[in-house]
Amino acid sequence: xxxxxIIQYDGTNFSGYQIQPNGRTVQGKLEAVLAxxxxxxxxxxxxxxxxxxxxxxxxxxxxxxxSLTIPVANWLKALNTMLPDDIVVKDISEAPPDxxxxxxxxxxxxxxxxxxxxxxxxxxxxxxxxxxxPLQLERMQQAGKFLVGxxxxxxxxxxxxxxxxxxxxxITEISIEEDSAQQIIIKVRGTxxxxxxxxxxxxxxxxxxxxxxxxxxxxxxxTACDRSKAGKTAPPQGLxxxxxDYY
Amino acid sequence: xxxxxIIQYDGTNFSGYQIQPNGRTVQGKLEAVLAxxxxxxxxxxxxxxxxxxxxxxxxxxxxxxxSLTIPVANWLKALNTMLPDDIVVKDISEAPPDxxxxxxxxxxxxxxxxxxxxxxxxxxxxxxxxxxxPLQLERMQQAGKFLVGxxxxxxxxxxxxxxxxxxxxxITEISIEEDSAQQIIIKVRGTxxxxxxxxxxxxxxxxxxxxxxxxxxxxxxxTACDRSKAGKTAPPQGLxxxxxDYY
Lengths: 247, 247
Known about the structure:
The structure is a homodimer. By secondary structure, chain A is of the alpha+beta class.
């Protein structure tokens, strides 16, 4: 039986999603719990994609196969009881045997939280990026529009990435809004993302918001297909994998 | 020279404020940094009072004496550079040589944050107490009124406390309000507090908010002078030492 689960995690104390020999990872914790439930058998967990150290997830989606005959309703409780308190399973259900958490992704949404206040907030230090300089929201919104559509996003891909194939991706929607707590939230939806793409988009939009670059400059940056033309990579703690939609 | 500082800390990864042989403490970190600055000399830090493991501070106040001739303006930067990222010095200034962070307290304010939503919020798990059952705010407000004034608060003092002297304290103000994020915030101001007093008050108000006890019952609980008559001690992560006022 194939199960599909929606999970949340607080990325603060993880060395990212993907399992690695040393370091505490989300996949490592999930697979350790599943091994316990399956009497030591290794159960491989597949996610919609990895997230980096410090990056959070509100709607990460995974799948795995099981031979256990636990009713689906009991899985949720069993997993949440055994998982550490920084991973929560929000939903679990039976999926078709050919469902694939990575290959069947239709669209993903990421959100990046910027706390735009003079004073830093100690209690949010792991959950947003604190920017002291007042940001010019309207300029950022204008700049964001240039990113929507299908483009070669080479300028917005980490230089050390080993992406196979082209760097053409489609962003279906970008919105940049301020909430009541002086947080600027950048929402980016797309059919696929390159390594560090949302963090580089954020870093670039920030430079526009500071007044250092004109909004139209973003069009040039895309055309250049050169990572060095875009802004800095924004830090991980502001980024959330928010939602994954499937076909 | 005596210095007075207002500090904030995230209590999550501390075994409380007060220094102890094993365990990471706020006082321990402060004194370690001051020892470094004073070439190994032990500088004793005195706070307005201790806080327990997991309890946060937004306006804890401390004092210490120094022989260093650093301008006061540079102290803030020096301390914040050397302290770990879960302690922040918000303000530091010269105080009269007889100023005492504990003995000169006029009033203290604590705030307790209750997240009153069906779903728990993973990212707030260390910063509020999640209560699923909808709370009856008006009943809690009625109950709170009985606590204001000068009373023997024995019923609201941890049974294992070794308070010397009586347990008569004065609460000058209580307010219980809901914010826009479905958080119920209990503010308690008073001239002195017993061990676990705000957490036991919160636990008692919660039972009233659940509809398990009548608001008037609080008057009886006070009169009983018996810890077993009050509610459970609410967990630490919802509690913040918010402000300390001095004469």
